[in-house]
Amino acid sequence: MMATQGKKVWMDGTLVDFADAKVHVLNHSLHYGVGVFEGIRGYAGPNGPVIFRLPEHVKRLLDSARLYRMSVPFTAEEIARAVLETQAANDFVPSYIRPILYRGEPALGVKNRGGKVSLAIGAIPAKKYLGEASETGVRAKISQYRKPRSDAIPSYAKAAGNYLNSYLAGVDAADDGYEEAILLDANGYVAEGSGENIFLVRDGKLYTPGLESDILLGITRTSVLQIAKDLGYPVVEKLVSVNELLTADEVFFSGTYAEIAPVREISHFPVGDGRAGPVTRDIMDVFYRAVRGEEPKYASWLTPVPPLARVVPRATRREKGSA
Ligand code: PY5
Which of 157, 226, 295, 300 has the fewest CB atoms within 10 Å, counting from its CB? Predict the structure, then answer.
């Protein structure tokens, strides 16, 4: 699905060829999942490439690092700049940009906090994460794998280790012939997809689970909530039961890679008439215009990739005290 290659990877200030972006196999993050990352999209704006909600992604990356007690040797501005440089060095759009903070040095102690925290940023040509289903409607399975409670593994952090859970649910759903999994929280309420947030429409109102269901607070989710409010749809963040989900008029996923994807079937229950419903379509229309810079109201969501970043990639950076 994501096998497509990019051109350059930004590693601690140096742009290296995609094939050379390597780390030691005994690194702490590989063995224990202690790495925090982001998924960011680059789009074709009216005057060149743009990055969708860059400050929000950088902030979440730093918040995730904070929860995992990783001392990050880069400021928010430096990380934002590095994302722009990465987009510039991978001169394709739409792009899927993946910054990751990790401990790349060999270290096998679980409690290791001494290793240097590194930042790598790769980019690949973006596709539709859920493939054809993004247009025609996703078939999703309610997974038997529950979300871990946030007092075990904080869902607020976008950490590598969280994706053990997404992997189990996603692969199980795929083995059963579905395109995506819907995970419930520990109490049996609807939480989210394996890599997306979830929305329901009932009687013209929008519902979505909140942080109490141990979800990732998605940046696309925040954008959808804003668009829906601006379109005049009431939005309610609340605990969502499976029964509400199965009897919703419309259901859709939101996420950086998935963008907005209507759901047409959930564990053999058809959703609505099996196609994107009117509210979903309304929100999708505005969202896809916004990411292309065609909605002045949301122009602030897009950071243009400045010409400077396109022609002068920074070769090295000064070392700041490592973690
Ligand atoms: N929930 C989970 C578990 C996610 O992994 C994601 C994003 C979201 C919600 C949506 O968050 P956002 O809108 O901020 O993207 N998933 C990643 C993505 O880049 C990884 C997918 C493989 O879309």
Answer: 300
Same domain membership, residue 200 and residue 281: yes
259 pocket-lining for ligand 1 (C-beta < 6 Å): no
For ligand 1, is residue 301 a contact (CB within 6 Å)?
Answer: no
Residue 235: predicted pLDDT: 98
Strands in the chain per DSSP E: 8-11, 14-17, 35-37, 40-45, 48-52, 95-103, 117-125, 138-142, 180-184, 190-193, 197-202, 205-208, 235-237, 250-255, 259-266, 269-270, 302-304
CA of 128 to the centre of ligand 1 (A): 13
Q: What digits encode the pLDDT tens for the residues 130-168?
A: 777 777 899 999 999 999 999 999 999 999 999 999 999
Is residue 3 assigned to a domain? no
- Pair 169, 149: CB distance under 8 Å: no
In this predicted model, what pLDDT tens digit does every residue of 179-238 receive, in sequence order?
999 999 999 999 999 999 999 999 999 999 999 999 999 999 999 999 999 999 999 999
Can you give the residue range of the structural domain that contains 67? 8-127
Cβ atoms of 81 and 26 closer than 8 Å: no
The pair of structure tokens assigned to 322 is 């490592």
Q: Within this chain, do residues 228 and 251 fall inside the same structural domain, yes or no?
A: yes
Residue 127's pLDDT is what?
86
Distance 163 CA to ligand 1 centre (A): 10
Q: How confident is the model at residue 308 (pLDDT cuts 50, 70, 90)?
A: low
- As a whole number of angstroms, the distance between CA 156 and CA 150 comes to 8
| Domain shared by 270 and 188, yes or no | yes
| Pocket lining: 165 vs ligand 1, CB cutoff 6 Å | no
Instruction: Report which ligand 1 atom has the smallest distance to the Cα of 158.
Output: 5
- Residue 29 and residue 123 in one domain: yes
pTM: 0.94
Average pLDDT over residues 103-108: 94
Annotated catalytic residue, options 8, 141, 147, 158 = 158
DSSP category for residue 116: P
Q: Report whether pLDDT(28) > 60.
A: yes
Active site residue 59: no
